[in-house]
Design a protein that fits this description.
The complex is a heterodimer. By secondary structure, chain A is mostly helical. In chain A, 77% of the residues lie in helices and 0% in strands. The relative contact order of chain A is 0.14. In chain B, helix 1 packs across helix 9 and helix 1 packs across helix 12. The chains are: A mainly alpha, B alpha+beta.
Amino acid sequence: MRILTLAGRRLAASIPTLLLILIGIFLLLQFAPGDTVDAMMAQMGGGDAKLAEELRRFYGLDLSTAERLGQYLWRLVRFDLGHSAIYGKPVASVIVERLPATLLLMVSALSFAFFAGIVFGVLAARDVNRWQDTLISTLGLIFYATPSFWFGLMAIVVFSVHLQWLPAGDFEDIGAGLTGFARTLDIARHLILPTLTLGLIYLAIYLRLMRGAMLEVLNLDFVRTARSKGLDETRVITRHVLRNALLPMVTLIGLQAGTMLGGSVVVESVFSLPGLGRLAYESVIQRDLNTLLGIVFVSALLVIVVNFIVDLLYARLDPRIAPEG
Amino acid sequence: MDFTRRSILMTSAAIAANVVDPFKAFAQETPRRGGVFGVHYGAEQRQLNPSLQASTGVYIIGGKIQEPLVDLDAKGQPVGVLAESWEAAPDGKTITFKLRKGVTWHDGQPFTSADVQFTAMEMWKKILNYGTTLQLFLTAVDTPDPHTAIFRYERPMPLNLLLRALPDLGYVSARHLYEGKGDIRNNPVNLAPVGTGPFKFVAYERGQHIIADRNPNYWRDNAPYLDRIIWRVITDRSAAAAQLEAGQLHYSPFSGLTISDMARLSQDKRFIVSTKGNEGNARTNTIEFNFRRKELADIRVRRAIAHALDIPFFIENFLGDFAKRGTGPIPSVSTDFYPADNGPQYPFDKALAVKLLDEAGYKPGAGGTRFSLRLTPAPWGEDISLFSTFIQQSLAQVGIKVDIVRVDGGGFLKSVYNDWDFDLATGWHQYRNDPAVSTTVWYRSGQPKGAPWTNQWDWKDEAIDKIIDDAATEVDPAKRKALYGEFVRKVNTELPIWTPIEQIFVTTISAKARNHSNTPRWGSSSWHDLWLAE
C-alpha cells in the first residue's frame, strides 16, 4: 500500500515535468526550417504549390503555432497522441509496434553491461594493480573510446560477412515463418550483435564504477573486521562488499535508461532494427511532430518507471534509505 | 581523399568490363523459376501507390504490384503494358488508348477503361506530383467500351510527350477500391497496394520489410519467375553493403551505397556494379543562382563562377566513372532530345574568371575577397556535399568567399523554394525522359512561390518562356526537338542554372540475377522477367 501511494505521488509529481518537456520540444521543432509538407515534397521529388497548400490544410499546418499546440495538448488530455503524418495511422499504434524492439534491445544491453560490469569490476578490484586489473581496465578504456557505429559495423564485417555466424541485421528471419520457442531463439540470435554494440560502452562505465566502489568499500572498517574474523576472501566480497558497492551502480542504471534511447538510434540504424530510436530520428527528418512528441512522451514515461524501480531497489539494498525519505 | 581516388580509379576498368560482359554471357540460359529476391530499401515512403506519388522510392515497390499504361523498352522506346496501342488525332487534342483484354486486378475484379478514367481524372490530374502539371489541360477521359480510353485535352498534347511521361506518370489504380471510399490520400489501399502486376502485395512491416509474392494469374505467360520479393528497410548505407556481402540482399538500387563501397564491390565477382538500366534516371548536378543578389544578376559573375571550377578534376577525384561532364539541362542519355549543339560551355579558366569579375567591377578588397555568398547544398547524396566544399574552395581562389549553409531535406526546400533565402544552391536535377515533364519548370518564369524544383531564382527571359510554351504543345516531334535544342543553347548562354556534371544512378546487384538492368528505368519497372540463377 505504501508503495502504491508512493507510485501515485511520483506520477503526479512528474506530470508537470512531462508537460514542460512536451511544450519545449514542440516549440523547439518550430525553429527547424520546413514542415512535414516540405519534407514530404523532398521525398516525392517535387510537386506544385497548389498541392503543397492542400497538404498543409490536410495536416492542419495552416494554423498558428499556438492553435496547434493548444490542439495537441487538448488531445493529450484525452489520451490521444494524434495521427502520424509519415505512417498514416495513430501515433499510439506506431509506437506500440516499435516499442518491443527497443525495449528488448535496451533491457538486454543494460543487463549485459550491468552484470558483465559487476563481474569484471570485482575481478579488477580483487587483483588491483596486477596484470588482471591492467588488462580489464585497458579493455574497458577501449570499449569506452570506440564509437558504437564503428564497433557495430566491424562486428558485422567479422561475424556476419566473414565468419557468417550471426545475421547482419533485422529483428528476426523474415521468410522462415518461425513460431514459439524457435522464433524466440531466432530473435535472440539477431539481438546478440546489437546488444554487444550498444552494451559495450555501458559495460566500460559500469566496470570502472564497480572497480572504484569495490576498492572504496574494501578499505572500510567492517571489511577489516570481517577479514579478521577469518572469513575467506570470496565470502568477504560476496557477503559484505558487493552489496554495498552495488548502490552507485543502481543509481547509474536509472540515469542511463534515458540516455540509452539516444544510443539506440545508431545501433538500430546499423542493424536495421525497427525500434523507437530510429523512429524518432525519422520523425525529426520528416518533421512529423506528432510522432516525435509521442516518442518523447513514451520515453519520459519509461524513464519515470525505471527511476521508480531504482528507488525500490535502493530500499532493498540499503534499509537505511526508506521509500518515504 | 587519396584513398578514395585510388580505389575508384582502380575499379574503373572493372566496371567498364562488367557493363559489357555479364549481360550477354547468360543469354543462352533457361530461366529458373522460384527464389526470393532481397532488395535494399533506403528511405520509407508515406504510401506505396505510384498513381499518387511519382518517385523512385515508390516505383521500387509499387511498380512491381501496379502497372502503367506504357513502359520503355530496351531501346528506350514506349511499349504498351496496360495499353496495347494508341493513336492521336491530328490536332493533338484527342489521344485514344486501346487497353489490354483479360487483365484482372489482384482481388479478381476485371481491369477496364473505367479504372483508367478514374485514375486519370482523380489521381493523375489532381494529386500526382508532376501529373498535375502534365494533365493540366486534360478535360475528360471517355470510355466508349471497357477496353478503350479516349483522353480529351483542351490544348494539343504531343503524343511523344505523353508516351514518355506515362511510364512514370501513368500507373493505374483500381477504381472499385477508391471510388466512394473517402479521401484518396488516406485510403488504406495505398499502403497495401492492389494492382495488375506480376507481384501481389503480402505484408508491410514499417521499419522492417515489405513482402510481395508471385501473382499466379498474371497476364504475361510464364511470368514472373521469382516466388517472392522482400524489400528490407536499411537506412545505414554501410550496413546495406554488409548485408549484400552477407547474402541477405541481392540488389541495392539508385546509388544506395557509399561511393567507396560501390567501388569496392565492383571488384567483387559476386556483384555487378554499373549504371546500366538507369539511363531513364539521369540527373545533373546543378548550381542555382539567386538573381535577387545584384552580383549574381550580372552574367559576368555567373560565367566567372562557372569558369572558376575545375569540373574534370572534381569528377576524376571524387566521383570516378560514375559521372561525366554535363553539357546542359538535357542530359546526353536523352536520345530523343539531346541537341547536336549545346551552345556555350564553360571550361576551367581561372584567369578568365578573374578577368570577368574585375570587369564586373568587383575588385578584391581586404584579404583578396571580392564579396561573399551563402551556398545551400541539398542534403541528398555524398556528391552534393563534396561538390559544395569544392565550390567553396575553388571560388576562394578567385576572391569569392563562400559560406556553406547545411540543412536537411525539409529545410532545403523551405529556404530555397519558399523563403528564397540563399545566394547559391546546389543539388540535382532529375531528367524524366521529356524536358516538359520536370525540366522546363526550372526555367519558366511565373512559377508560384513555394513550388519545389521550379524557377524560384527570380530569373525571367521572355524568349525562353515562349520556347517552353510552344514546345509543350507542339505536336510535331521534329519541331519539338528543334525547339528544345534552341532552349538548351539559350539557357547555356544566359546561365540561370549551371549543370556542370551529369550522372546516372548506380546499381549494385548480385551476379546471380538474370534479365536485370535491361530497360532504361529497370529499377522502377515490373521485374516480370527477372530470375535468380542457382
